[in-house]
Amino acid sequence: MSSPEPASIHSQDVPSGNEIKMLLQPETRPISQEQLVNEVKGIYAGLVMVEKKCVEICQQQSQTTNKLTNEQWQALIALHRTLLHEHHDFFLASQHPTASPALRRLPTKYAMPARMWRHGIHSFLELLRHRLPYSLEHMLSFVYLAYQMMGLLMESVHAYHETWIECLGDLARYRMAIEEADMRDRENWSGVARMWYNKAADRSPTTGRIQHHLAVLARPNVVRQLFFYSKALVSGIPFVNARDSIMLLFSPFLDHYETTSQKYSRLESSLVTAAGIVFTRGSVYDYCRHINEFITELDAYISRSGSNWKVQGPEVASSLIALLLDFGSDENFLWRAFCNNSDTIRQLQTERSSDPSTETAQVEDPTIKHGIQQRYWNSGPINAATQAAPATGGRQANFASSDEVTSYILPVWSTAISIVAGKVGDRNILPFMHFMLGFLWSLSYVPGALVYLENYVPWAQLVKALNSISRSGVADATVESSNFPQQKSGVGRQLPEDFPMRGLKWSAGYVYPPDYFEGEVVDEDDRTLELPSHAAPRAERCLWLGVRLASLRRYITYDFDTKQFACTAFALTLTNVAPMNTLQVQPPAGTGSTGQDAALPDAVP
């Protein structure tokens, strides 16, 4: 076969040299600052008028139950669409490349992102939601409209990128909530909302509000809900409103335990119920009854769960730590200690900076917290005057104080660590142990915090667990270095449990280096994947934390030749005064009890 002939080219198709001309760029005139300011003022004036109308109509409609016609709904959608477009124009004009810094600050000064969400989207969505199912079609239409607008803002107005991401998550959650016909569609939108919230958490890991949103999406997994709600309350920036929302989880267990508990395993039901009793300052007797069931079930539950415990273990560990912190109560000793230490670090940071207003003053200086830690552990005898008091048995009343809550949680926390650490050779327990070892190491940075509960830490069990960890693929030099292990594990340098641990009050700035979650961050879809390549880095991390705790020279030691851990003589004496007692309370009169005490197994089996 011959090649096709090239298309014929006629001479008249090619312009002569005299005819070739360059096209000039269209003439543009730069906009002056005065023109830009006037433009922004004009947009804002129109925006305020539309906003006022939206507020008035939503308030009127929220006070009546009259059914609206399709035309009326469409008119309301058009009005709110206009408000969203006005906001869009305002953001574009105020963030123009030639805008002055004062002009660029206007959206923040007048809280425009929050006003757009509140008056342009949220109020109208709530109005539509309360008129369901008649308003379903219009609500779907408006959700898609708002979702599209948020996507546009995310692409064009980068200054408020974090806000747009969270708003996209909220809109996806609304879309999920109104889907009742197609459960697959509902789950898809739940995944979309979770994706946006995880992106928001990546940018603002210490913001408890985002953890609260993830808690709502965790239904019906009650342990995961407890994890996210409690994390919202003990994050670096706690979300106080979660104290109301968490009751949506606790109330069914507290009010209708017999019915609700049948939907879940005994371990899950007992843990959530005990947490609810503590949170609401309920009966000590009821708490002991349920927490005893949790401890009794724990060993067998881990064995049945298999590799699933790698995911649920950190959630249980985090929830127990949140209980120790009494859900971020200002009366709690450990919570106050972390807050005070953060204040001290910020104060020292400001004093070191010649100009506190500069960016360098906002960048964390790790030498400050290390200096506080070293001075505490190396400046002479440790003052152990402030330590957690043991739980007092025989109480028939309700929890009366945060200190009392701590005294009843500590034996449970200690026993849970002992049970998990005792499962020698089970790799599924390592994420839980990683979580708890990270917590203990973070306590060492806060003067008095680790000493406060040192009597309750099962040091002998921790040493046994550390010595039993497989060192296959583990680099001794990494374990024994003072630098945080940064070995790449599978799809990235983060382990699956690093993300649940990130952003908590006790982990922020203590467990991880400042740049650990920057750069090579594991993709959101891969974070829960358990890969064989995680084994060595996870073992390395646990062993590294063990060596770090040994560097305190108070509780455990590490032999650099034999690579073995051991308890110090001081730690062995602590086992004699550790809370070996059982948490026993006599049942309240008239409960119809068999007369047996609710007992918690020994802290160290």
UniProtKB/TrEMBL annotation:
Annotated InterPro entries: DNA/RNA-bd_Est1-type, Est1/Ebs1-like, TPR-like_helical_dom_sf
Highest taxon of source: Eukaryota
Coiled coil (UniProt feature): none
Domain DNA/RNA-binding: 193-504
Record region (Disordered): 585-605
Protein name: DNA/RNA-binding domain-containing protein
